[in-house]
Every structure is written in C-alpha cells, then in structure tokens.
Amino acid sequence: MDAAGPPCMGAAALAALLLAGCGGGWEDDSPPAQQEIEPLWAQWYASPPDAAQCRPGVLHEAVKQQALDKLNAIRALHGLRPVVYDADSDAQLMQTVMMMQANQATSHHPPSSWACYSEAGASGARASNLASWQGVRSAPSADWAMHSWLHDATNLVPDNVGHRRWMLDPFLKKVAYGIDMALRDGRWHSYAALKVIYEDEQARTDGWARDGFVAYPVGDYPLRHWHENALLSFGVLADANDRGANQAVDFGQATVRVTRPDGSALPISEWRYDNRRYGLPNNVQFKAEGVTHGVAYTVHIDGVLVQGVPRNYSYRFRLQP
Questions:
Q1: Fewer C-beta within 10 Å: the chain N or C terminus?
Q2: Residue range(s) of every CATH 3.40.33.10 domain in the chain
Q3: Closest CA to 168 of 231, 53, 83, 52
Q4: Is domain 213-319 given the CATH code 2.60.40.1220 in the classification?
C-alpha cells in the first residue's frame, strides 16, 4: 500500500507538495443577517481589514490568544506540548488572508498577478494552513478553522491529513494566526491562515510526545473535533532529538485493527502510509467504518518497523459530546 505522491525534500518542497490547494472550506446557507459586520469588526479587529483598498487588518490580542488557546487545547488532547505565539509574523499572515479575500480564493502559491499581491503575503501562504468559509446567516467564531484543519475531512486535497499533521507536530514551537472577514453580496466570506512552517526550524532536535506517538483521535475525545468522514491517523516519535530520523519508521508490513469493547472489529479501508516531511515525517491513515460516539474503541497497529525493530502499538479512544 504505497503512499500517494512523491516524498518531500525540505521545507520549500514540502510546502509546495502538502499545502498547495489544501485550504478546506464549507458553506452555511441559512437566511442572511446583514447588520453584523461593525460589531464583529469591533470585537475582532484593532484595525479592520479592507481588501478593496488592499488594507490588511490588525487583530485584537484577545482574538490571537483565543486561536492559540484552541490550538494548545487540541495539542494537549494528543499529549503534545503547547506552542507560543509568533507576533513577528502577524503582519505577514494578515497580508496573506487579505490577499485571499481580495481574490476570493485560497492558494499556497498566489501569482504576482493577484490583486493586492505582496511577497510577504505570498510567503505566508506558502508556510501556512489555509481555510475558507462562507455563509449568510451568521459569522463563524474567530477560531473556526482549527476544527476544519484538525479533522481535515474538508481538505481540498483528497485523502490528505496534512493540516492535522502540522497542527500535531511534536517539533512545532510557535505559530501565527490571521483571519480576514468581509460581508459581500449578502454573504460572509472568511479566510484564515495558521503559520506552521518555519524553514529555520525544520531540523529541530527537541520534539516531545507523551505517548511516544501521535494519534487521532485518542483518549476521551471531544465529538466537536470529529467528522464522520475523517481519516484516523497515527505516527511514531522514534527520535525526539532529530526530526529527520523519524523517517526511519516503516508501516509497509504493519496491520491495523479497531475493536469494540466486545472484541469485534470495525471494517478498515483507505489504509495509506508515507514518510514525507510534513511535521512528524511518518504517518499511517485509514478509515474505520461505523465509529459511534460513547463507545470505547481500541486501535491495534502491529508490525511497525521502528529503526529496524518490530514494534506493536495500541491505544484507546472514545468520542464524547
């Protein structure tokens, strides 16, 4: 079962391969509410964006903290250390989302012909998870994109959990967040970016994962972070002192079972694995048919070769409202 696509070669290539076209999105088609933009802008922005004038916004500190807190709460569920906020990248990320708003599109490689183009915004797009949302009833929360990136079921690249892998990278130390919201033609249009790729940190030597692996979902897991079409995923932190050494994990002969409390197994499909340098550079992903909230499942992944040594892993998860 070969991984889809070629391996990545460093930060620039991995941004090009993983992130291109990866911005997930969805629509809310409820009845419109036209009078919300000014209160929302006052709540979110110290200076509101205006894509028509190529003017990026400035987020309130509380909004950035909300996004950081959401990300760190998610990382804690997976036994990962918190990250800090990278204020130095604020202006870059707000340029990125303003460009997407101005062009009504997401792209990790925006062309110089784009309206409101800037190299800073383009650089931010190459280094970030991207997402878009639109609807007519109400605006989303300021951290709405975190859920989309985590379950990755709306990823525009099919069968890809790249956003999730960057969010749950054991070597990740800092992030920046940008969001641009506009009300246009009676519809809300929101574009978000989370900076997760730092080229100077791709050789980090201080990764950490409580369990020695990163799994989704794991433990007692909030149902709001799950999607019925989500892929389960698993990666091994084989070497916390060398990111690249974690490519020495081979799922080629591994098997997976997901069992109910009575020992019966769920059907497994879409099993794929790879060793690309997307955060933790080993990953196996699969569908488990019939996952239901409130049931404690055990995942068994056996026959994994970790630096040449066979290893078996098991963990439990239960989706909870």
A1: C
A2: 34-195
A3: 83
A4: yes
Contacts 24+ apart (CB under 8 A), 283-286: 283/161, 283/165, 283/233, 283/234, 283/235, 284/233, 284/234, 284/235, 284/251, 284/254, 284/256, 285/159, 285/161, 285/231, 285/232, 285/233, 285/234, 286/231, 286/232, 286/233, 286/256
How far apart CA 265 and CA 302 sit, in angstroms, is: 15
Residues of CATH 2.60.40.1220 domain(s) within the chain?
Answer: 213-319
- What's the fold here for domain 34-195? Pathogenesis-related Protein p14a (3.40.33)
Return the DSSP state at 100.
H
Q: Which of 160, 220, 223, 170 is nearest to 196 (CA)?
A: 170
- Would you state the pLDDT for residue 202? 65
Helices of type H across the chain: 10-14, 37-44, 61-77, 90-103, 119-126, 145-151, 162-167
- Separation CA 158–CA 95 (nearest Å): 28
Q: What percent of the chain has pLDDT over 70?
A: 87
The predicted-structure confidence for 260-277, as pLDDT tens digits, reads as follows 999 999 999 999 999 999
Segment 305-318, tens digit of pLDDT: 999 999 999 999 99
- CA torsion sign, 179 to 183 to 184 to 189? positive
First vs last C-alpha separation in the chain: 34
Task: Spell out the residues 6+ positions from residue 4 whose beta carbon is closer than 8 angstroms to its own.
Answer: 159, 272, 274
- Quick one: pLDDT at residue 138? 64
